[in-house]
Structure formats: structure tokens, C-alpha cells
Amino acid sequence: MSITYKDASEIEGMRVAGKLASEVLDDLTPHIQPGITTREIDRLAAECMQQQGSISATLGYQPSGYPPYPASLCTSVNHVVCHGIPNDKPLKKGDIVNVDVTVIKDGWYGDTSRMFMVGDVSIAARRLVALTFDAMWHGIMRVKPGIHLGDIGFAIQQFSEKNGFSVVREFCGHGIGRNFHEEPQVLHYGKPGTLDQLKPGMTFTIEPMINAGRKDVKEFGSDGWTIVTKDHSLSAQWEHTVLVTETGYEVLTLSAGSPPPPPFVTA
Ligand code: MF3
Ligand code: CO
Ligand code: CO
Asked: Which atom of ligand 1 is found nearest the CA of 174?
């Protein structure tokens, strides 16, 4: 499949889906407290999507070589890098958790994730969460026609490594539209001036997974999905879906509860 460029009416569909995905996270936010299980978070999300008239893109999602994904969202706690499956273990004070929501509305996909800190968390975890958010925005703020995908990866990698963290290589951002995962792949590392040039109408995610320790990851257990850091160090991730406009970018996964861009971003 090749890159799809969205026209004005298609972009409107993407805006609606993106906002709904973000509003699911808004809805979950007050509930993410010590004692809640990730399965309960999943149930709340399913309820919210039902009220929205949206559908979870992850429930039953089955790329080739994977078992069907069994939940309405992903919950990745502490050293889980991504694709954590909700379970019955309560969150506890000091945990950090990524909640990744992808909804489908009128055939359009919106994909976004945020980090949540459960009660008081360590200074190290707080720093990882904050700097991973900044890393995502260092990528987003470069988006405009003519730049290369490698420019985005380079910005994220350079910022993350400068701060002593590592960038996960095995998973990347992706084109998105009427499909969950389209071309292009959006790597979170790379070299300036390399890979495809951006053009108006492209929509893709930027979703860096940043580790406090080494970059290496491995599969956890045998559920076919959960990915953890090999060295058990903490991992964080934030994700937005973005549109390439004629002059720059538009973030499609914003809503009332979205954390504002960091101060260094001037759109
Ligand atoms: N939402 C994830 C992404 O950002 C994909 C999750 S696939 C799942 O691309 F099946 F694990 F849910
Ligand atoms: Co994504
Ligand atoms: Co996602």
C-alpha cells in the first residue's frame, strides 16, 4: 500500500476521529488512580466509545503473525514499552502508564496516547515522562511540506539521547487514514535529509517510545503482544496523529484535556 493524501473532506473525517480518540483519554483521566485495574480502564474506554458512536480499532485487531488483540486500548505500565494488554493487577502509587487509544469513526482512524503518573512517582520517572512528551513535540514541530521523514527521527533521537535516554527502534509511527497502519513508517531515529519528503495531505502518527536505560526490547511472556525493555528500565511513550498542511502541521488528536504543547513549540 502506498501513501494516501487526504483532501479537505477526508481531513474533516480525520479531525473528528482524532478528537474522539483524545476525548476517550480525557474521559479516563480522573479514573487513573492507585487501585484501579487496567481492565477497568479498558471497560471505561469501551463504554465511552459506545457513547461516542466510535469503535475501538484495537479490539480484534490482527496483523499477520499476531493473535487478535483482546482489548479496546493498550495499557503499558512501567517497563512495558507498548501493546500492554489490560489485566486485573491494580495500578499502584509510583507507576507510570501509557494509555493508547485508537478509534474508528465513519471509517476514519484516530490514534493517540498519553502517559499517566499514578500518585506520587519518582523524580526519574517524572523526568522520563516529561522529556518523552518533549521528544514527541520536537518531532511534531518540524512537520511541514518538503522536510524529510529522517528530519523528524533525527530531532527525536538527538533530543532523547542528549538527555541520556534511548529510542526504541522496533516500533514506529505510521501513516493513518481509512486504515490503522498505512505507509509511511515514521521512525523515531534517523538522519537529516533522508527518507521520503512530506507533502500536504499526509496524515501520520508520531509516537516515540523512549527508555530510561538501554534501547533493546523483547517480547514479554507468550501473549503475543506485550513488549518490555530488555533491561527492565522504565519506558514512556506519547502519541499524536498529525496532518501535513500547506505551511506546517495540524495536530488532529487534540481535545479539551490534551496537555498543551511545551513552551519551545511555536506553531
Ligand atoms: N495504537 C498502537 C499504535 O499506536 C497500536 C496498537 S495495536 C494493538 O500504533 F493491537 F496492540 F492494540
Ligand atoms: Co499509532
Ligand atoms: Co496508538
From this structure: 9
Domains of the chain, each with CATH number or no CATH: 8-266 (3.90.230.10)
- Please name the helix (run of DSSP H) or strand (run of DSSP E) that holds residue 46, with its range, or none: helix 38-52
Distance in Å, CA 241 to ligand 1 centroid: 13
Nearest-CA residue for ligand 1 atom 8 is 58
Q: What is the pLDDT of residues 216-244, one digit of tens each?
A: 999 999 999 999 999 999 999 999 999 99
d(CA 4, ligand 3 centre) in Å: 19
pTM: 0.98
The secondary structure element, H or E, covering residue 41 is helix 38-52
Dihedral pair phi/psi, residue 99, rounded to 5° = -115, 120
pLDDT, tens digit, for every residue of 146-185?
999 999 999 999 999 999 999 999 999 999 999 999 999 9
